[in-house]
Amino acid sequence: MVGDIVVRLDRTGPHAAASVALSTRVTDPLLTDTKTGLSYVLLGDPWHGGCPRALSTAEFRWTGGEAALAGTTGDGTDWYGNACSGPLPRRFRGEAQAQAAWNVADTIESVYYGALRHSVTVSDSRAVQVGGAPGWLAEFLVRYSGTPHLAWSSELAAVVVIRNAVFYVSVPDNLGTGTVETLLSSLR
Questions:
Q1: Bridge-based pairing state of the strands 48-49 and 39-41
Q2: How far is it, in rounded angstroms, from Cα 75 to Cα 73?
Q3: Which stretches within 32-168 are classed as H helix?
Q4: What is the Cα–Cα distance from 4 to 54, expressed in whole angstroms?
Q5: For 4-53, how does the pLDDT look when each residue is reduced to its tens digit (9 = 90+)?
Q6: Would you list the domain boundaries of the chain?
Q7: Among 23, 51, 140, 174, which has the highest number of CB atoms less than 10 A from its own CB?
């Protein structure tokens, strides 16, 4: 069941002209996706290596990642917090980075979150630098309604498009949404 969606029309935000470096000094081990060249922090328990198989689709082929089990949905489906990287699907290549990031975010939202009644609001949208390369961050908050049986009530998610690569992170509140910033700040 697909719930109501709330979308802010101006997705470029007030910081569109400013480019902010996401990478900071990271001392934890890094996970490196050799297909995209992206690296990000490898989190500790309960996180484990590997993007959840259920996230691979005909369009999104995740080549690096990590995940943590957040719980199960009412129908018994495992639900994960995840950080996944992979090639930017061909249909988004050639678009302006902001447009590509939001088109990827919209596609991810409809494919991955549609099973649960939810709403989406834009949290952040801005130009970023990742390892010296320009990119675009599209961050959104997913709130679940009508599902009191879940172990979480919201989820913070972000998409970063860099060159022909995409980084997607989504963390339910029961796993600590601050993890999204940790992962984004480690991205290089």
A1: unpaired
A2: 5
A3: 97-112
A4: 23
A5: 333 333 444 443 433 344 443 445 699 999 999 999 999 999 999 999 99
A6: 19-186
A7: 140
